[in-house]
Amino acid sequence: MTVAGIDLSNTEFWSLPLPERAAAFALLRAQPGPPFFAEPETPFAEPGPGYYALVRYADVVEASKQPEVFSSAKGATSIPDLPVEFNEYFGSMINMDDPRHARLRRIVSRAFSPRLIAKFQEDVQRAAAKVVDDLLAAGPCDFVASVAARLPLKIICDMMGIRDDQYEMVLANTSIILSGADPEFVSEDLDQAVLQVLGAGQALADLLTGLAAARAESPAEDLVSALVTANIDGEQLTAAELASFFILLVVAGNETTRNALSHGLMLLTERPDQRALLLADLESRLEGAVEEIVRYSSPVLFMRRTLTRDYTMNGHEYREGDKTVLFYYSANRDEAVFAGPDRFDITRSPNPHVGFGAAGPHYCLGAHLARREITVMLRELLTRVPGITAGEPDRLLSSFINGIKRLPCEF
Tens of pLDDT along 59-73? Predict the structure, then answer.
């Protein structure tokens, strides 16, 4: 099923160059109503009746603010319906509505104490400095493996109390879980792909279960200890909730920052005028540059919602049970909100992007940490290796993550 000759459900669309994808979304935003598409094939479920693509900023924002109408409980990260147990195992609170969502978020938020956050902020600076030390010692390399993936992986693992020798296992399994249709990570045989993703989730859950048992006996200064011992008004996380949240944290905590950093280097390479502008006054312009990188790259391309009742939004009548897909990538290029949306502009202000989701109960819990990691890493990199440039990227074949698997760098 196509709209204006565009089929978002076709794997080939997501292998197009980014400018062609951006142009396609511009055509969809120009349609009189929300375009409707067939659901993509997935190894985990049969495609359903189809979905409305929310490609305009106003629609994405309104749907995000109305969780009682635009529900996440039937799945937010997959367009076809997955089993409820599968959704919650891999998505934790992302795939829940209130009151269950509010309960989990309340317990988890309290675990991120000011003392713990202050410690992590110091850790980010030390980790970024070590990453650049090693980069300078190694010379030109794959930027993703040596820089973009290393920083968030170390911060998340240190935060949870995971040993250094377990980092690669965590990275390998998070890559499988968010691999989409990319044959580098999962088999093209559908049954085998299901087993690979389930196995990756089980490996991470087993790691957390072992950690949790050890911290229950002997608490430490890490997030697992805080989560295991958290007791908010008599409420605690169950073992299953703890394992599921851990999978969410290591997957989301790694992927968003990693891909924003990779896209950031590419953008500053492709637009030397913006690099020069940033380097001319790094401290005053870095915050704006980070926001523009997140807007422009939109590391998470979409989230899905399901209508709980009939609802009229921006002139269109939706029916109970309709599926809507909130395309953040398109909303972040909406001409009605962003002047010259295809222009990368580190001085853009205001910049009300939805790169971490739109305002509402599902706004990204880790947005503050992600911003800090990107900011600290770019400051360290551009101060000590200001001439670093990116080569041709090897992109992830995915409709969910705007990912970069490998990115050669020179300096």
Answer: 999 999 999 999 999
